[in-house]
Amino acid sequence: MTASAADDLALFDDGSQPAADKKSARALAGSSGTRRARPSSPDPARWPEPTWKSRARRTPAVPPTPDQDPEVHRIRDCIEAADPEGIRCGRAIRQALDQTYDGRRTGRWDLTQLTKAETVHIGSLIEVWLQRVFDLSDGVNTSLQVAGYDVACTWSERINGWTLDRAYSREHEVPVLVVWANEETSRFSIGVLRPGPESRGMASMDRGRPRLSQTGIDQILWIFDGAALPANILVKHPAIAMEAVLQLSGQSAVNTLFRRLQGELIPHAAVETVAQQIDSSKRIRDARRDLKNEGIVILGPLHPQPKIAAALGLPLPQAGSFVSHRLAPMKVSEVGIGAEIGGRRWRLATASDSVTTAPTLPVQGKERA
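and the corresponding structure tokens:
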């Protein structure tokens, strides 16, 4: 059994181990008394190539025109009308990936940390989340209906790695939503294709299903190509992520995250992953208290804290995200970017500024008219 597998099984420990082992487990768990998962490090050798969008066509094949395949175009138009900027599609993919990582229970955040059995289900979860964000009906022969037509779905973490299911009908192939995303570049693409005989290539290792051929790839009618995917901050900083996850307590892990990733938006999913606790929101509140003496503030998404972030020149925290930074008080004669907090002006601290206790932030709440 591998070390990572042993750690995963430890999550279901029935408490029957010897006393000496229990003592070691308590030391590993820290003050919370709950054993923390210790995932394996991400494997850079298995990371997909950083990609921003689909590649240029390599064959004479092109997407069908509206006259050639009106159904495919109606499906594209239906999704575009409901989601003009791809925000819903990006959120569906983000939710599916985060659900697969299951960071709160496993401490994982990277595709290379998943088992083969888990990666097989990413496409199904994307279907589930697309159905939720667009309120789609079940298909007759597939999981989804879009614009009144049955639609299948295929997912790949590599821009040319899609596979296809069996043909549903020799006379009338079901359109397929083709989905790709890259965690490193925070980009995704989604298009629609009606497969034909020329679209099915050699059988893949994925249960012998045929790969989508280059001809099929060139026939995809893209709905969004290279659109913004909500970022996975832990993928972008794997060393810091590992440092946080391996802390002995959830609170120490959250403190480490906000201390080490100052000036970057940190989504709630990242906090849950390093905390590995149900009440991760309390860990954020306690991190504000713990980091105050280090001069670090943590700004959240509710009024007036986004305005403070904007005044300081920090990224704007949206729903479910936070941003931290060490602050320094501004002198009376000092001009420049800064924010008034508690009756005093503050700016982002630099390495040359001495550490000053951070100001107390105003209570968050809805902005009143």
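(Above: one complete record from the training split.) The two ends are 60 Å apart (CA to CA).
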